[in-house]
């Protein structure tokens, strides 16, 4: 699964939102509801950051980078808001780092705008129950998917790269046309 697109991020958010009640039902009796939500947010940020990579090396580095932000926050604070901000920061940094546009001020502006809009949307959707938390998780990723509509992450380098098999086929066709 790739989350490097509008639809991929919406799909990830849908799966993450649907998955929360089951995760919470399993973990809340053992570690408490708030700790279960903090853990889920941390794992979600790590997984999303990993899925932003194009290959295994980028996926591992994305997961490790996100873990550097979210694991200490999950361990050192009991606040859900702090965990949500750490998760948002981890995914924003990973996504911006993967950006092929090389326009850092623009990318930071897009990330900041999406964070503000995302947190406002989550506050409007969220509530005390697991279903409203699931809806808020999906809503967060719905807003984050807008990143790809405004051109925040470009796969131009991967689209411009020519497949070696296409090059070989073109060379064979060129040779056959000469004969």
Primary descriptors:
179 residues; mainly alpha
List the helices and strands and how they pair.
Elements: H1 6-31, H2 33-51, H3 56-76, H4 80-97, H5 104-125, H6 130-144, H7 146-149, H8 156-160, H9 164-178
Helix pairs in contact: 1-2, 1-6, 2-3, 2-4, 3-4, 5-6
3D structure, described in words:
The protein is mainly α. The protein has one domain (about 5-179). It is built from 9 helices and no strands. Helix 1 runs antiparallel to helix 2 (about 35-50), helix 2 packs parallel to helix 4 and helix 3 packs antiparallel against helix 4. The protein is elongated. It starts with 5 loop residues before the first helix and ends with a helix. Residues about 155-160 have low confidence and may be disordered.
Order of helices and strands: HHHHHHHHH
So how many helices?
A: 9
Biggest sheet features: none
Cα-atom Rg, whole angstroms? 20 Å
- On the 0-100 scale, what is the average pLDDT? 85
Straight-line N-to-C gap: 45 Å
């Amino acid at each position: 699964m790739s989350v490097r697109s509008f639809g991929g991020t919406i799909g990830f958010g849908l799966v993450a939102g649907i998955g929360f009640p089951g995760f919470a039902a399993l973990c809340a009796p053992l570690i408490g509801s708030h700790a279960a939500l903090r853990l889920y947010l941390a794992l979600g940020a790590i997984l999303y950051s990993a899925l932003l990579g194009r290959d295994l090396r980028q996926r591992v580095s994305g997961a490790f980078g996100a873990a550097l932000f979210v694991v200490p926050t999950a361990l050192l604070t009991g606040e859900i808001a702090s965990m949500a901000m750490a998760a948002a920061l981890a995914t924003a940094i990973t996504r911006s780092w993967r950006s092929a546009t090389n326009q850092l001020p623009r990318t930071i502006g897009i990330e900041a705008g999406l964070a503000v809009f995302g947190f406002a949307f989550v506050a409007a959707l969220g509530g005390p129950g697991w279903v409203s938390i699931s809806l808020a998780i999906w809503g967060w990723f719905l807003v984050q998917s807008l990143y790809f509509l405004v051109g925040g992450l470009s796969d131009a380098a991967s689209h411009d790269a020519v497949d070696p098999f296409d090059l070989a086929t073109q060379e064979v066709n060129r040779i056959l046309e000469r004969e």
